Amino acid sequence: MSSVFTKIIDGELPARFVYRDDKVAAFLSIEPIRYGHVLVVPVEEVDRWTDVEPATWTHLNDVAQHVGRAIIEVFGSARAGYLIAGFEVPHAHIHVFPADDMGGYNLADTIPADQTDPEKMDDAAERLRAALDMGDL
């Protein structure tokens, strides 16, 4: 059975994409630490980040770094947080999010999906796409 991320990547489930190429997709988390929280995901479904093919892992991190720079620019955060957990979805992914302190590193403290503001989510995606110069994916 496909992971929820594979379903998103394949267009079976909706998402707010900010980046996409043939190896990597990046889209907003539906349960963000803060608005602008992005998941950077390999297109190929691989459960553990330690099992991602090395060239894809390098590219995944290049994209995460590019997204992190855009997050700092767009949201004015002190840093872009970077976190690998992998227990929520069995598909390797990197969390990249606006961070001003260590508080954002607790994935138990996210905004529940049913409590996010759709306008803020759309605005975050639009601003990140513009900063990443990716247009309307």
UniProtKB/TrEMBL annotation:
The keyword Hydrolase applies. Residues 4-107 form the HIT domain. Keywords: Hydrolase. It comes from the Bacteria. InterPro entries: Histidine_triad_HIT, HIT-like, HIT-like_sf. The active site is at H93 (tele-amp-histidine intermediate). One of its GO terms (molecular function) is hydrolase activity. One of its GO terms (biological process) is nucleotide metabolic process. Pfam families: HIT (PF01230). A motif (Histidine triad motif) lies at residues 91-95. This is HIT family hydrolase.
